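Bit of a strange request maybe. I'm writing a small parser for C-alpha cell strings and I need a real example to test against, not something I typed by hand. Could someone generate the C-alpha cells for this chain?
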Amino acid sequence: MIMDGELVRKTEDDTTVTKRTETLVRSPGELQPCLLVLTGSAVGRSFRLTNSAYVIGRGSEVDIRLDDDGVSRQHAKIVLLPKNVTMIKDLGSTNGTYINSAPVDAHPLADGDRIRIGASTCLQFTLEDDIEANLRDHLYSAATRDALTKVPNRRVFEEQLERATAYAKRHGHPLSVILFDIDHFKQVNDEYGHLAGDDVLRGVAEHLASAVRAEDTLARLGGEEFGLILCGNDLHSAIVTGERLRQAIGQSPFATRGGEVSATISAGVAQYDVSVHRTPLELIAAADARLYEAKRSGRNRVCPQS
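Reply from user aminoacidic:
Good idea to test on real output. This should exercise your parser:
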C-alpha cells in the first residue's frame, strides 16, 4: 500500500518501507533491470527501473501507467531489493498478476520473465546494459514521436483513439476529440521563415502538452494540425478545455529564430456517439468538420458539433 508517499511491503514476519523517490546507484557497466511492454497500448515501450520501487496501474498517480482494460488503478508493485533481487507484488488487483502464466501474490523476477496484468497487457522483465536500453528508447521514440515537436504522432493518436472508443462503447463512458489547427500558418512561414515556423510548431506543442492531463492523448497529426483525445469528457467539458487552450495559445507569443511571433488556433470538437460514429475515423471526421467551420467562420475559435 501507499502511505505518505512511501511504499510498504509486508510479509508475515516483517514490514519494509521504501521511499519511491530513492534512486539506486549502480556500478558502471552493471546490467539494469527494465520492463518491456510486449502487448497493450504502450507496446514497444521500455521502463528502466532506476528507483527502489514502482507502482504499476492505470491511475494518474502511479509510477508506470498502463491504460488498458482490466488493469486496476493500482495493480502491482515492483520493489528492487539488495543483491540485485527484484520482487513484484499484486496490490489486490481485480484481475490478478501473472508471472509466466501462473498467478502470483508476491514473486521474485528473473531475466526474461513475462508479467501479465489486465486483459491484454504483457510485460517482460529484462536485464540490459546502457547501450541496449538507449537503443530501445531511440527506436521506440522514432516510431511513436513526431520528430519536430516530440509529441506522439498520428499513428499513436489513431491507435489510442481506437482503444478509447472501444472502451467508451463497452462501459458507456464519455469520450471527446478536439482537432486544433494553427491559424494562418503559411503566413508565418512566408513572413518569418520556415525555421521560425518550426519554432512556432514546437512552442504550440509544448504549450498544449503542458496544459493537458496525463490521461489525455495529444498528437501532431501533420502540418500545423494537432489532435487531443479526452477520455471521460463529455462535449461540454471538451469545449471548456478547447477554449482554455485556445486562449492560452493566443496570449503567449513565441520566441523564434525569426523574432517574436504571435499565433492563434482554431478547434473543432466532437463527442463520441456509438449510434453515429461507427468507427474512430468517423469521430475524427466529425471533429474535422467542426474545425473547418471554425476556420471558415473567422478562425481563433472553438466550434463544437451541433
